[in-house]
Write a structure and sequence with these properties.
The chain is 77% helix and 0% strand. It is mainly α. The relative contact order is 0.09.
Protein backbone atom coordinates (compact mmCIF):
# COMPACT_ATOMS: atom_id res chain seq x y z
CA UNK A 1 0.00 0.00 0.00
CA UNK A 2 2.78 2.45 0.92
CA UNK A 3 4.77 1.44 -2.18
CA UNK A 4 1.78 2.26 -4.38
CA UNK A 5 1.48 5.70 -2.78
CA UNK A 6 5.19 6.37 -3.29
CA UNK A 7 4.90 5.41 -6.95
CA UNK A 8 1.79 7.57 -7.37
CA UNK A 9 3.59 10.54 -5.77
CA UNK A 10 6.63 10.04 -8.00
CA UNK A 11 4.46 9.91 -11.11
CA UNK A 12 2.60 13.04 -10.00
CA UNK A 13 5.90 14.88 -9.48
CA UNK A 14 7.19 13.88 -12.91
CA UNK A 15 3.94 15.01 -14.56
CA UNK A 16 3.98 18.30 -12.64
CA UNK A 17 7.58 18.96 -13.66
CA UNK A 18 6.81 18.18 -17.30
CA UNK A 19 3.79 20.49 -17.30
CA UNK A 20 5.87 23.22 -15.68
CA UNK A 21 8.52 22.98 -18.39
CA UNK A 22 5.83 23.08 -21.09
CA UNK A 23 4.14 26.10 -19.48
CA UNK A 24 7.43 28.01 -19.38
CA UNK A 25 8.05 27.10 -23.02
CA UNK A 26 4.57 28.20 -24.10
CA UNK A 27 4.92 31.51 -22.28
CA UNK A 28 8.32 32.05 -23.90
CA UNK A 29 6.91 31.27 -27.35
CA UNK A 30 4.11 33.78 -26.85
CA UNK A 31 6.50 36.48 -25.69
CA UNK A 32 8.82 35.71 -28.59
CA UNK A 33 6.04 35.98 -31.17
CA UNK A 34 5.08 39.36 -29.72
CA UNK A 35 8.71 40.45 -29.88
CA UNK A 36 9.33 39.26 -33.44
CA UNK A 37 5.99 40.13 -35.03
CA UNK A 38 5.35 43.29 -33.03
CA UNK A 39 7.42 45.75 -35.03
CA UNK A 40 9.35 46.60 -38.13
CA UNK A 41 13.04 46.46 -38.94
CA UNK A 42 15.82 44.58 -37.22
CA UNK A 43 15.68 43.71 -33.56
CA UNK A 44 17.82 45.71 -31.17
CA UNK A 45 20.76 43.90 -29.52
CA UNK A 46 18.72 43.60 -26.30
CA UNK A 47 15.78 42.16 -28.24
CA UNK A 48 18.10 39.72 -30.05
CA UNK A 49 19.51 38.53 -26.72
CA UNK A 50 16.01 38.12 -25.28
CA UNK A 51 14.84 36.27 -28.40
CA UNK A 52 17.80 33.87 -28.18
CA UNK A 53 17.06 33.19 -24.50
CA UNK A 54 13.37 32.61 -25.22
CA UNK A 55 14.09 30.28 -28.15
CA UNK A 56 16.48 28.20 -26.06
CA UNK A 57 13.98 28.04 -23.21
CA UNK A 58 11.15 27.09 -25.57
CA UNK A 59 13.27 24.38 -27.22
CA UNK A 60 14.20 22.72 -23.93
CA UNK A 61 12.54 19.30 -23.75
CA UNK A 62 10.20 20.29 -26.59
CA UNK A 63 9.86 17.79 -29.45
CA UNK A 64 7.98 20.36 -31.54
CA UNK A 65 9.62 22.27 -34.41
CA UNK A 66 8.13 25.62 -33.28
CA UNK A 67 11.36 26.86 -31.63
CA UNK A 68 13.23 26.50 -34.92
CA UNK A 69 10.42 28.27 -36.77
CA UNK A 70 10.76 31.09 -34.29
CA UNK A 71 14.52 31.16 -34.86
CA UNK A 72 13.77 31.53 -38.59
CA UNK A 73 11.34 34.38 -37.87
CA UNK A 74 14.08 36.17 -35.92
CA UNK A 75 16.56 35.73 -38.78
CA UNK A 76 14.01 37.01 -41.28
CA UNK A 77 13.15 40.00 -39.11
CA UNK A 78 16.85 40.84 -38.78
CA UNK A 79 17.30 40.75 -42.55
CA UNK A 80 19.24 37.47 -42.60
CA UNK A 81 17.20 36.04 -45.45
CA UNK A 82 19.75 33.31 -46.26
CA UNK A 83 19.75 32.16 -42.64
CA UNK A 84 15.95 32.12 -42.53
CA UNK A 85 15.76 30.19 -45.82
CA UNK A 86 18.26 27.64 -44.47
CA UNK A 87 16.20 27.13 -41.31
CA UNK A 88 12.89 26.86 -43.17
CA UNK A 89 14.42 24.50 -45.76
CA UNK A 90 15.64 22.24 -42.96
CA UNK A 91 12.20 22.32 -41.34
CA UNK A 92 10.46 21.35 -44.59
CA UNK A 93 12.86 18.43 -44.99
CA UNK A 94 12.10 17.27 -41.46
CA UNK A 95 8.34 17.80 -41.77
CA UNK A 96 7.47 17.56 -45.45
CA UNK A 97 3.73 17.53 -44.67
CA UNK A 98 3.78 20.79 -42.68
CA UNK A 99 2.05 23.55 -44.70
CA UNK A 100 3.22 26.26 -42.29
CA UNK A 101 6.85 25.36 -42.96
CA UNK A 102 6.33 25.57 -46.72
CA UNK A 103 4.54 28.92 -46.37
CA UNK A 104 7.41 30.31 -44.31
CA UNK A 105 9.95 29.02 -46.82
CA UNK A 106 8.03 30.59 -49.72
CA UNK A 107 7.84 33.93 -47.89
CA UNK A 108 11.53 33.99 -47.00
CA UNK A 109 12.76 32.70 -50.38
CA UNK A 110 10.67 35.23 -52.29
CA UNK A 111 13.36 37.87 -51.73
CA UNK A 112 16.29 35.50 -52.13
CA UNK A 113 15.53 32.66 -54.54
CA UNK A 114 12.33 33.10 -56.62
CA UNK A 115 12.57 29.56 -58.04
CA UNK A 116 12.71 28.06 -54.54
CA UNK A 117 9.80 30.28 -53.49
CA UNK A 118 7.76 29.02 -56.45
CA UNK A 119 8.52 25.38 -55.56
CA UNK A 120 7.56 26.04 -51.95
CA UNK A 121 4.26 27.68 -53.00
CA UNK A 122 3.55 24.73 -55.30
CA UNK A 123 4.13 22.28 -52.44
CA UNK A 124 1.96 24.42 -50.18
CA UNK A 125 -0.89 24.25 -52.72
CA UNK A 126 -0.53 20.45 -52.82
CA UNK A 127 -0.81 20.27 -49.04
CA UNK A 128 -3.51 22.93 -48.66
CA UNK A 129 -5.44 23.38 -51.89
CA UNK A 130 -7.60 26.50 -52.08
CA UNK A 131 -11.14 26.11 -50.87
CA UNK A 132 -13.75 26.67 -53.58
CA UNK A 133 -17.48 26.87 -53.23
Amino acid sequence: MIAARIVACAVALVVAAWLGVQAVGAHGAGELLTLVLGGEGPLSPAQQARASTLIDRTARLNPDRRPEQLRGYVRLRDGDVRGAVAIFTKLTRQEAQNPEGWALLARAADRYDPALAARARSRLRELSPPVTR
